[in-house]
């Protein structure tokens, strides 16, 4: 009797202990997440606070270094009253438009040429050295030339974004096309695929993961191209905002433009990651793959 | 007896596969020449199952790529159905050692790939692909991606992918070597079954099955070809008289099997030893 009762009592206890252990683990995980978030927030507050305090107490020169409160005021002022060149939204849109157009063009060119050279040995052998030379050139020096060629409008910024985006995408697409599992290609050919089909249905899908890694980096490059182009000479855009703030010794304006750019870049990055997850459902270990 | 019908083919019907003095030389990345296959003569009759065994890395796989048309011989001739091989032929199926399924396609789409590449209408290709998936027991998995399947299941998809093309000639390059022992025996039985009813007009495909597993070779084949240490050439050919239909697990317990095994191994073992000694001298 006592044994039986011990058993019947024991089972629920074991169950409860199991449940409470799961609960404890969940609690610990939640706790850790909060701790990480808290530490992040604290770090930001400490850094911004230190900056503010150091600038206000004149340990660092507030004229050169500005302070977070002034940067915030600048952003608010731009948002509410617009900038010297028009509304803030318009500046962001201009920069984004130039970067996006340059990015799309550069990516398209890079992917097409990369795959073509990866597949057609003759092309690769002929063009290879020229592409190496162009890549060795620090391409940002082309921005002033583009300004001369295409003027103050968006075209010159698009051009500098294109040359910055093209090369990393090209090299990744080229590498991706070259590194295609040769058994996949052999299998496709045995199954009756023509050269064109092998390119379209084997090489391009297997090169996409290579291409996508370059897309992340290259959108950043497109923004750099657009901003540098605007900085050198433009009528609109965030780069111009930086240049004109600098010209009027408004350091808060430079920092404010930087902060806006960072937010724009992060949003674009988020969108790309989302698209990537949708595209790579077939991949092992990719989120959403096992669903 | 199978051997007799294979060698004495009636006039007018050529053997399924014929290699005449075929050699293949590759240039290695370091620039040196490497002869994978040298002066190879081999004939495979219509509907015959030939297993090729030899030491690791001796050039067995190269033989298959020559027959498939993926590579051309440096010297000699390769004939399929009496015609010289020029490029890839639609009646040839190839099952690879490694996973060669398209990872971005679902199981069904993988099996449909061959017919679609050859321009078959989508509906018909899908219907036939479903039929073959059912035959390999994967009808319920058609929407999965390859990485969601086990190794044995992936191999079944690969078999369906190949058989759906109704191959008259089936080339298999150590297809089951990556599987565990139990799955392997199971797959061998399934292969024999599929092979029995493989062709749409009732005949059997002619098979060249490359393996380094002698038991597997004897259990499956009508003839076992022993290759020399690389460069590969035919050392000796052994007819296997075991009656069909065979079950892989039970056939290997028969005294006749054991006897053949011993006989072939005494021939193959020497080549394996040569390869091993070469490897050792490479290391030293």
Automatic annotation (TrEMBL), chain A:
The membrane topology of this protein is: Multi-pass membrane protein
Q: What is one cellular component GO term in this UniProt entry?
A: plasma membrane
Do you know which Pfam families this protein is assigned to?
A: BPD_transp_1
What PROSITE patterns does the entry give? Answer: ABC_TM1
CDD domains in alphabetical order? TM_PBP2
Q: Where in the cell is it found?
A: Cell membrane
Q: Which organism is it from?
A: Streptomyces triculaminicus
Tell me the domain of life.
Answer: Bacteria
Where does the ABC transmembrane type-1 domain lie?
92-273
PANTHER family cross-referenced by the UniProt entry: ABC TRANSPORTER PERMEASE PROTEIN HI_0355-RELATED (PTHR30151:SF20), ALKANE SULFONATE ABC TRANSPORTER-RELATED, MEMBRANE SUBUNIT (PTHR30151)
Name the record gives this protein: ABC transporter permease
UniProt lists the family membership as follows: Belongs to the binding-protein-dependent transport system permease family.
Its main localization is membrane
Q: Which UniProt keywords apply?
A: Cell membrane, Membrane, Transmembrane, Transmembrane helix, Transport
Provide one Gene Ontology biological process annotation.
transmembrane transport
Gene3D superfamilies, per database record: MetI-like (1.10.3720.10)
Q: Which residues cross the membrane?
A: 34-54, 100-118, 130-152, 158-174, 210-232, 252-274
Automatic annotation (TrEMBL), chain B:
Transmembrane segments annotated in the record for this chain: none
- What SMART domains does this protein's entry cite? AAA
What are the entry keywords? ATP-binding, Nucleotide-binding, Transport
Residues of the ABC transporter domain? 17-254
GO terms (molecular function) for this protein are: ATP binding; ATP hydrolysis activity
The protein's matches in Gene3D superfamilies, at most eight in alphabetical order, are given as:
P-loop containing nucleotide triphosphate hydrolases
Please provide an example of a Pfam family that matches this protein in its UniProt record.
ABC_tran
What is the protein's given name?
ABC transporter ATP-binding protein
């Amino acid at each position: 009797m006592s044994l039986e009762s011990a058993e019947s009592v024991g089972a629920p206890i074991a169950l409860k202990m199991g449940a409470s252990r799961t609960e404890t683990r969940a609690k610990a995980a939640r706790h850790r997440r909060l701790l990480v978030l808290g530490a992040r927030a604290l770090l930001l507050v400490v850094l911004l606070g230190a900056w503010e305090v150091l600038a206000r107490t004149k340990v660092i020169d507030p004229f050169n270094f500005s302070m977070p409160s002034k940067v915030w005021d600048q952003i608010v002022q731009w948002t509410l009253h617009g900038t010297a060149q028009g509304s803030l939204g318009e500046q962001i849109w201009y920069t984004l438009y130039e970067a996006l157009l340059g990015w799309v063009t550069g990516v398209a060119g890079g992917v097409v040429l990369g795959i073509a050279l990866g597949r057609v040995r003759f092309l690769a052998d002929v063009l290879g050295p020229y592409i190496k030379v162009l890549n060795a050139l620090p391409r940002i020096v082309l921005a002033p030339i583009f300004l001369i060629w295409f003027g103050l409008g968006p075209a010159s910024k698009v051009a500098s974004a294109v040359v910055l985006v093209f090369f990393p995408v090209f090299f990744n697409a080229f590498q991706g096309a070259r590194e295609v599992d040769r058994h996949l290609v052999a299998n496709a050919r045995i199954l009756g695929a023509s050269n064109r089909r092998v390119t379209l249905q084997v090489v391009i899908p297997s090169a996409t993961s290579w291409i996508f890694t370059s897309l992340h980096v290259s959108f950043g490059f497109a923004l750099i191209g657009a901003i540098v182009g605007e900085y050198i000479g433009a009528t609109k855009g965030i780069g111009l905002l930086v240049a004109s703030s600098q010209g009027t010794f408004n350091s808060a304006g430079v920092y404010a433009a930087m902060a806006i750019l960072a937010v724009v870049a992060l949003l674009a990055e988020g969108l790309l990651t989302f698209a990537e997850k949708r595209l790579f459902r077939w991949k092992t270990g990719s989120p959403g793959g096992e669903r | 007896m199978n051997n007799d019908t294979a060698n004495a083919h009636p006039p007018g019907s050529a053997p399924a596969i014929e290699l005449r003095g075929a050699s293949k030389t590759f240039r290695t990345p370091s620039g040196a020449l490497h002869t994978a296959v040298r002066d190879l003569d081999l004939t495979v009759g219509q509907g015959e199952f030939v297993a090729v065994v030899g030491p690791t890395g001796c050039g067995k796989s190269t033989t298959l790529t020559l027959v498939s048309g993926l590579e051309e011989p440096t010297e000699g001739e390769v004939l399929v159905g009496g015609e010289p091989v020029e490029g890839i032929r639609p009646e040839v199926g190839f099952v690879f050692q490694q996973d060669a399924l398209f990872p971005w396609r679902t199981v069904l789409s993988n099996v449909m790939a061959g017919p679609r590449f050859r321009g078959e209408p989508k509906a018909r290709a899908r219907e036939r692909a479903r039929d073959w998936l059912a035959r390999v027991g994967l009808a319920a998995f058609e929407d999965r991606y390859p990485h969601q399947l086990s190794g044995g299941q992936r191999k079944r998809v690969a078999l369906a992918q190949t058989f759906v093309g109704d191959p008259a000639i089936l080339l298999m390059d150590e297809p089951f070597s990556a599987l565990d022992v139990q799955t392997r025996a199971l797959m061998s039985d399934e292969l024999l079954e599929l092979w029995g009813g493989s062709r749409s007009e009732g005949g059997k495909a002619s098979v060249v099955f490359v393996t380094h597993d002698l038991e597997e070779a004897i259990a499956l084949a009508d003839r076992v070809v022993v290759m020399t240490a690389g460069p590969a050439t035919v050392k000796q050919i052994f007819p296997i008289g075991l009656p069909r239909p065979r079950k892989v697990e039970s056939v290997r317990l028969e005294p006749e099997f054991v006897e053949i095994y011993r006989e072939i191994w005494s021939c193959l073992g020497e080549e394996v030893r040569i390869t091993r000694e070469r490897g050792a001298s490479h290391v030293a």
